[in-house]
Design a protein that fits this description.
mainly beta; six-stranded antiparallel sheet; 1 helix; 37% strand; globular
């Protein structure tokens, strides 16, 4: 009995419950926190697991919006702290980025995706290459082969290469994405300004950024911003530089089947 009393007293010393708050190693948990931990020589260890993809809803079924895990790392996703910015039925895991604060006066955040080989749909209509996800603008960007035939793998023999965008989460009102672009290469160069419209009905449908196909080797640079207003971290408060390489048609990167399997594609977004 005496031993139980001692254990109970130790537990009370280490754990404090104040107004529905929990304090561990503190008797005065911060008023803004539901859980407050203190230690001079220990850290907080979140759940460690391996996510299948940035849209993984299998490893953790129906993950809550805002759920935090430590992803151990894979070929397509680097190790680190990830947050589900999507919904339980349509997860969107994004890596928590440290470093300088991205405010009105200083700092920026960079996201990137790169791979070799054209991004063509397989027989099930699934594109295998990674999308570029920009949470602040509620935006996704990709290169994609539209139409044409494919090999037994995922590289296109024919078809038009397109630079496309879509929204991540459903907006409450209509959204306009404004784009000013310039691209240049060994054969042609051009520039253009366009407005792309998204609604609550078509927000998850990919739209081409340009009328022309990207069937040439180009370096490109885009300026994009959104009209979308949200209660928290509104996309309208951010702007984005998008730049990278389109390796379509590079003869030295055609690959053994002459299907563009070694062409370089890169997408990088700097949000500020």
């Amino acid at each position: 009995m005496k031993g139980r009393k001692i254990l109970a007293m130790c537990a009370i010393c280490c754990l404090s419950l104040v107004n529905g708050q929990v304090g561990i190693n503190t008797s005065t948990p911060d008023l803004s926190a539901i859980l407050h931990l203190e230690s001079p020589n220990k850290g907080f260890l979140p759940t460690r697991l391996t996510l299948i993809s940035s849209t993984d809803g299998t490893t953790i079924p129906n993950p809550a919006t805002g759920l935090v895990v430590y992803h151990k790392g894979s070929a397509s996703m680097g190790a680190g702290i990830y947050v589900n910015i999507g919904t339980p039925t349509a997860p969107k895991w994004t890596k928590s980025v440290g470093g300088q604060e991205n405010s009105e006066t200083h700092g920026s955040t960079v996201y990137k995706a790169k791979y070799r080989g054209r991004n063509a749909a397989n027989s099930a209509g699934v594109y295998s290459k990674p999308d570029l996800i920009i949470p602040e603008l509620n935006l996704m960007v990709r290169f994609a082969i539209v139409g044409g035939s494919t090999t037994s793998g995922t590289n296109a023999l024919t078809g038009n290469n397109r630079l496309q965008v879509r929204l991540i989460n459903q907006p409450s009102t209509d959204v306009t994405i404004t784009s000013y672009s310039h691209w240049h290469g060994p054969v042609t160069h051009n520039s253009r300004g366009v407005n792309l419209s998204f609604t609550s009905a078509n927000f998850d449908q990919w739209q081409n950024t340009d009328t022309e196909a990207w069937n040439n080797q180009w370096g490109y640079y885009y300026l994009l911003y959104s009209s979308e207003i949200r209660a928290v971290k509104s996309p309208k408060d951010f702007a984005m530089n998008l730049y990278g390489i389109c390796g379509y048609g590079n003869s030295i990167a055609a690959g053994p089947q002459k299907d563009g399997s070694d062409e370089m594609y890169s997408l990088a977004a700097e949000v500020f």
